[in-house]
Amino acid sequence: MIDWWNSLEPAMKVLWAVTLSASLVFVIQTVMTFLGAAGDTDFDINTDMDTAGPSDVGDGSVDVGADVETGESGHLGTGMNLLTFRNFINFLIGFGWTAILLKDSIPSTGLRMLIAILVGIVLVAIVMLLFKWLTDMQQSGNINVFKSAVDCEGTVYLTIPGERAGEGKVQITINNAVREYAAVTDGPTLKTGQRIRVVEVISANTLLVEEINSVII
Asked: What CATH number does the domain located at 145-211 have?
């Protein structure tokens, strides 16, 4: 294994490292999402890319051990916002594995990179459509967010700007189902992973939340 690694060119070492890291993060994201604990993961990508409005382009402070993103307008985390950490990881997986697998069959680096980029984009589109489909299935359920969401607790999924300066994302559990909603707060900025409580339902897809302060006895 060591001999194989040492035999790689520097560019291939970087490509392998990025691809394997992205694959690991993807597996963790997927498991945590379907276990309903994605908001509690320690993967933070706070690159200070928060928008000041509901467009919600994504959050970021690359901390590879820190917050994740995956936007969506509904519940499970659709990743329907293009510039999100989840979509970035999906792109890296498609790009990286394609570039690695085609290394010997396509000698032209330019052509190989072009194909890898296209595969990465296609993978992002497929995952976005998949999560949209899952979200639509959830939205077709019988949960009335106006009646059920208030006082529910959950976690911040995408950083929520303070003083209603913009929207973030939260994941809450309603009737034993994990749902993701856009969220605003009247208080200070809430970072990914913080525990929150729903104070008010602003619209079918937007909640007003506040931080749950930990009490140390």
From this structure: 2.40.50.140
